[in-house]
TrEMBL record, chain A:
Cited function: Structure-specific nuclease with 5'-flap endonuclease and 5'-3' exonuclease activities involved in DNA replication and repair. During DNA replication, cleaves the 5'-overhanging flap structure that is generated by displacement synthesis when DNA polymerase encounters the 5'-end of a downstream Okazaki fragment. It enters the flap from the 5'-end and then tracks to cleave the flap base, leaving a nick for ligation. Also involved in the long patch base excision repair (LP-BER) pathway, by cleaving within the apurinic/apyrimidinic (AP) site-terminated flap.
Chain coiled-coil ranges: 97-124
PROSITE patterns assigned to the protein according to its UniProt record, in alphabetical order: XPG_1
Region of interest called Disordered, as start-end residue ranges on this chain: 328-380
Domain XPG-I: 146-218
Lineage: Eukaryota, Metazoa, Ecdysozoa, Arthropoda, Hexapoda
Pfam families: XPG_I, XPG_N
Cofactor binding, note field: Binds 2 magnesium ions per subunit. They probably participate in the reaction catalyzed by the enzyme. May bind an additional third magnesium ion after substrate binding.
Gene name in the database record: Fen1
Annotated protein name in UniProt: Flap endonuclease 1
Organism: Plutella xylostella (Diamondback moth)
From TrEMBL, chain B:
InterPro entries assigned to the protein according to its UniProt record, in alphabetical order: DNA_clamp_sf, Pr_cel_nuc_antig, Pr_cel_nuc_antig_C, Pr_cel_nuc_antig_CS, Pr_cel_nuc_antig_N
Protein name: DNA sliding clamp PCNA
PANTHER family: PROLIFERATING CELL NUCLEAR ANTIGEN
Keyword DNA-binding: yes
Length: 380, 260
């Protein structure tokens, strides 16, 4: 999933493209959220004593709990979220999906072993690895969001690609996902850690594509080639080429074709039948619904509907659900604070160069920070 | 070499008090004409624009334009070390990474200097177009501070509506509602105490009280404050600082939700 090591590479080479902001600063913004990614996070992270929250029949409800409360948190901060759901996976991803299935099998075996040995820590660990977002989870979350009055969009294919389309067309301000390939698809602004729990005090990371390209010294097409070389979901990459060498190669040769011509293929073996051209096409012209055809409409929450949906079998506390619905309602009524940058144009961003020097000094510091985003991500 | 000297350190102290709650850091841009500061608060709702003209200083020298990024919390701490009657001098070398504040007591017996590290800030600069406003209201600054403080107890936001009868400030909240009306002063004995309204067409706008309360920290800089408003553009709150410049605050209005 995502692009291997891209966020670290950006943090090292183009630190000025990454800003850390407080969630409060996004009030009034419309933000497209990659739903499968967040559902996945919730299934992993929202737990009590290491176990998922479930209905009376043992069906998980962690994803609903997460979607409900964290969406409320966004709305309370004045953000207008849109959830974008995955459609069918592209054929090119099947290879990656096979690999994931293999890994699940392994995890299952490990889990059995751990259960026999009674090793609680490992049981938890492998339990989490077995988490999978199913069709049904998606359906439930969509129903919940409908009741909350939050719009959803079903992408024909990959959600990240659809999010990117919405941002590019200016329908939303940014994409919120942990997957860096949203940038490869051309999203102008990417937010990470937006749907994380408040308790973790994780600042929201904001990536600007133009500054990323500027900092790396690449054009969008070259950036896509770089991402393929780093390792994406759609095809293999060259064995033995790490992030550092990848950026050097692309900077020097400017395209994968040229890279292939110029490197020693005996030493660095490209995968057999390497379908990088198809992957590139997928990033450049993904299958998406046109932004103009997508209608985003926020509406009032349906309090009774929410209570009916969440309480009862799904065992949510009625009081808390009603409270949540009131919060949603409150955020809708009244006025929204305007932003000055909506009235005045930004003219200059002074001395980026001095900033770059400054960041070099802090580089060691930065690296340690960027390494730490591990929890709540899909296993590779 | 940059050097700026003020006989009354209290001006600089008050300026810092007026901006340090809104901004944590800012760049002081110095050139021949004086010192300029423009910065938005973190949430990009309000903007501070400060001008201190070179001729308002007792001594001013700026050989080469410099931009000094300062942590305003630290700067405020340093200025608190100065006595009100002290003379203050700001100094920096070209391309320096520190700035020095020198305080001298009136009888020259005590001289203290404080050096502060500068920061490399990359802040967005906004171009603010010259605007003709539909309404400008001048009123005593203490009065305005009082109104903001009183009304913020009733609600998060305040409606300012200006008509030819006068200006009305109102707020509504859980405990009830509050309205303050000010009529134009009929006869002006003291200019400083007058309420003067110039109006092309009536305007009603809603603003967050929290920010207005930040702005009124500048009250001690000037006996009068001027509010400028037009429909659907930011409010301007201006405090003139006698003989040296002004501080202007811009605040984006709250907008009625369009149903999308």
């Amino acid at each position: 999933m995502g692009i291997l090591g891209l966020s670290k590479l950006i943090a090292d080479i183009a630190p000025q493209a990454v800003k850390e902001c407080d969630i409060k600063n996004y009030f009034g913004r419309k933000i497209a959220i990659d739903a499968s990614m967040s559902l996945y996070q919730f299934l992993i992270a929202v737990r009590s004593e290491g176990n998922q929250l479930t209905t009376v029949n043992g069906e998980p409800t962690s994803h609903l709990m997460g979607t409900f409360y964290r969406t409320i948190r966004l709305v309370e901060n004045g953000i207008k979220p849109v959830y974008v759901f995955d459609g069918k996976p592209p054929e090119m991803k099947s290879h990656q999906l096979d690999k994931r299935a293999e890994r699940r099998e392994e995890a299952e075996k490990e889990l059995q072993k751990a259960t026999e040995a009674g090793d609680q820590a490992s049981i938890d660990k492998f339990n989490r690895r077995l988490v999978k977002v199913t069709r049904q989870h998606g359906e439930e979350a969509r129903e919940l969001l409908r009741l909350m009055g939050v719009p959803t969009v079903e992408a024909p294919c990959e959600a990240e690609a659809q999010c990117a389309e919405l941002v590019k067309a200016g329908k939303v301000f940014a994409v919120a996902t942990e997957d860096m390939d949203a940038l490869t698809f051309g999203s102008t602004v990417l937010l990470r850690h937006l749907t994380f729990s408040e308790a973790r005090k994780m600042p929201v990371q904001e990536f600007h594509l133009d500054q990323v390209l500027d900092g790396l010294g690449l054009k969008q097409e070259e950036f896509i080639d770089l991402c393929i070389l780093l390792g994406c979901d759609y095809c293999g990459s060259i064995r033995g080429v790490g992030p550092k060498r990848a950026i050097d190669l692309i900077r020097q040769h400017r395209s994968l074709e040229q890279v292939l011509k110029n490197i020693d293929t005996a030493k660095y073996q490209p995968p057999e039948d390497w379908s990088y051209q198809d992957a590139r096409r997928l990033f450049l012209t993904p299958e998406v619904a046109k932004a103009d055809d997508v209608q985003l409409k926020w509406s009032d929450p349906d309090e009774e509907g929410l209570v009916k949906f969440l309480c009862g079998d799904r065992q949510f506390s009625e009081e808390r659900v009603r409270n949540g619905a009131k919060k949603l309602m409150k955020a809708r009524s009244g006025t929204t604070q305007g932003r000055l940058d909506g009235f005045f144009k930004v003219t200059t961003t002074p001395n980026p160069k001095r900033k770059a020097d400054d960041d070099k000094k802090n580089a060691a510091n930065k690296k340690a920070k960027s390494g730490g985003g591990g929890r709540g991500r899909k296993p590779k | 070499m940059f050097e700026a000297r003020l006989l009354r350190s209290s001006i600089l102290k008050k300026v810092l008090e007026a901006i340090k709650d809104l901004l944590t850091q800012a760049t002081f841009d110095c050139d021949d004409n004086g010192i300029q500061l423009q910065a938005m608060d973190n949430s990009h709702v309000s903007l501070v624009s400060l001008t201190l003209r070179a001729d308002g200083f007792d001594k001013y020298r700026c050989d080469r334009n410099i931009s000094m990024g300062m942590n305003l919390g630290s700067m405020s701490k340093i200025l608190k070390c100065a006595g009100d009657k002290d003379t203050v001098t700001m100094k920096a070398q070209d391309n320096a990474d520190t700035v020095t504040f020198v305080f001298e007591s009136p009888n020259q017996e005590k001289v203290s200097d404080y050096e502060m590290k500068l920061m490399n800030l990359d802040l967005e600069h906004l171009g603010i177009p010259e605007t003709e406003y539909s309404c400008t209201i001048r009123l005593p600054s203490a009065e305005f501070a009082r109104i903001c403080r009183d009304l913020s107890q009733f609600g998060e936001s305040m409606v300012i509506s200006c008509t030819k009868e006068g200006v009305k400030f109102s707020a509504t909240g859980d405990i009830g509602s509050a309205n303050v009306k000010l009529a134009q002063t009929a006869s002006v004995d003291k200019e400083e105490e007058a309420v003067v309204i110039e109006m092309e067409e009536p305007v009603t706008l809603t603003f967050a009280c929290q920010y207005l309360n930040y702005f009124t920290k500048a009250t001690s800089l000037s006996p009068q404050v001027q509010l400028s408003m037009s429909a659907d553009v930011p409010l301007v709150v201006e405090y003139r600082i006698q003989d040296i410049g002004h501080i202007r605050y811009y605040l984006a209005p709250k907008i009625e939700e369009e149903d999308s």
